[in-house]
Amino acid sequence: MSRRDCDVAIVGAGTAGCYAGATIANAGYDVLVLERKTEEEAGHIACGDALKGADAFPDAIPKSTLEPAMTNTEVDHGRFELPEHDSVLEIPVPGELAVIDRWEYGRALLRAASEAGVEFSYDTVVQDVLQDGTRVAGVTARRKGESLTVEADLTIDGAGALSILQDKADLSNSTFDTNVTYSQFCSAYREIVHVEEEVEWKDALVFKPTKRAAGYLWYFPRTGTEINAGVGFQMNEEPMKLVDDLKADLATRPEFEGATVEDKLGAALPTRRPYDSAVAPGFMAVGDSAGHVNPTTGGGIAGAAYAGEYAGEQAIRALEAGDVSEAMLWDYNERVMDHYGGRYAALDVYNIMATAGDVSDLTSLLASLPGENLAEALYSGSTDFGLKLKLRAAMDSFGHWGTILDFYRTKRVADELLNHYERYPDRPSALAGWQRERDAIMDRVYETAGAEAKY
To answer: Disulfide engineering: 307 pairs with which of 102, 128, 132, 286, CB 3.0-4.6 Å?
Structure first.
């Protein structure tokens, strides 16, 4: 058995873990990242490969380090294919957009974090947490078959969706969000597909609904001839045959005739609101481990990067003060909610509506909305609809007016929820009252959308 003491132990060498590690190590603290993959495989994960907002990423890992992994910077919009209406909806995507080689991106993160002073323990599978009373005090693991105990002043969970750390830790005496179930997650599968001729939509992220409202297909061009093709579905629905469904759709697209396939991977990701609180004594969760993913698109790289930076900066303050209490770590929650947490919570309202609706009604709704308004709804959590637009949507969606009406009613409740998140509490003791008000708004969401409670 081996033992290691450090200032901060981080589980998971993904985007959030690397940004948190680099931030803390740059301040001179001893940071150990435990990664279950081997050093050769680290950084290789299932991902859609779309990177939004790369022009405004945190500085702990410079953008210049990541640019070589950005294989397609020509993408500038989304392309929604609506086969039922024999139409395509082009929508602008705000901010800088790129498609990346996720493995090369992952390797770049690891190199940058290492250069900042982070130590990595590869081939290390975390099995349990250490606790000193209510404080998380480290983890136990197996490294290349040997037992490893890591004691740390602060532990950061970047282990991904449905993290084992949250199953093992006793978080009952904290505000940490434990209202988490598999049904709030999405199961996804993707392949890297190579074609001989460049696709005509190499400047777009392509989305296509599946036969059920709870899923969608995507085609993201890494280059004109290398495409990330995938499919996902909400896990509260009847399981889809992901591989077969993707294969069937590929077979209908002439641009993929004679294509070759490599790098087949699957994953689970949160399609839910961010955790109400992602802190406990000696413990913080970041990225997928805390629901920091756009629940309508599944995009999580930007949220993970900022969560890593915010957690890292709060860890530094806590270590300097010798105080890793929940109250000391609370500012991390506030920064996440202020930056994107409230927006993602509002977006989750539309996700709830989508999973409760009929795919035919929903595609008719999409077809009736201008691209600019749809883009705002997908990325900001809200958009403005004047009377003229409402009338146009009603005319374009004849026969689906009930869905149109439900959408506008749901939008009003989503806006109310977004406003409520702007009043996120500044201390742990005020969270319960804030949650009661939020849950009352969510009851109206479920009633308006005709959906079962998600939380």
So the answer is: 286
DSSP string across 169-190: S--TTS-------GGGEEEEEE
The whole-model pTM stands at: 0.91
Neighbours of 145 (CB within 10 A): 7
* Structure tokens that stand for 256 in this block: 């993929």
Question: What three-state secondary structure class fits 31?
Answer: strand
Token pair listed for 217: 């297909």
Predicted confidence at residue 410, as pLDDT, reads: 82
Q: How far apart are the first and last CA of the chain?
A: 41
Q: Kindly tell me the sign of the dihedral angle through the C-alpha atoms of 316, 123, 109, 226.
A: negative
Angle formed at CA 63 by CA 158 and CA 318, multiple of 5 degrees = 45
DSSP SS3 for 213: coil
Binned at pLDDT 50, 70 and 90, residue 380 comes out as low
Q: Which residues contact 42 (CB under 8 A, 6 or more apart)?
A: 13, 35, 106, 107, 110, 120, 122
Nearest CA-CA partner of 301 in 57, 108, 70, 34: 57
Select from 287, 290, 270, 269 the least CA-distant residue to 278: 290
Cα 222–chain centre separation: 20
**Strand ranges, E, within 224-298:** 226-234, 260-270, 279-280, 283-285
- What whole-number distance in Å separates Cα of residue 62 and Cα of residue 64? 5
- Hey, what amino acid is at 436? R
Q: What is the pLDDT of residues 59-77, one digit of tens each?
A: 899 888 999 999 999 999 8
Average pLDDT for 98-116: 96
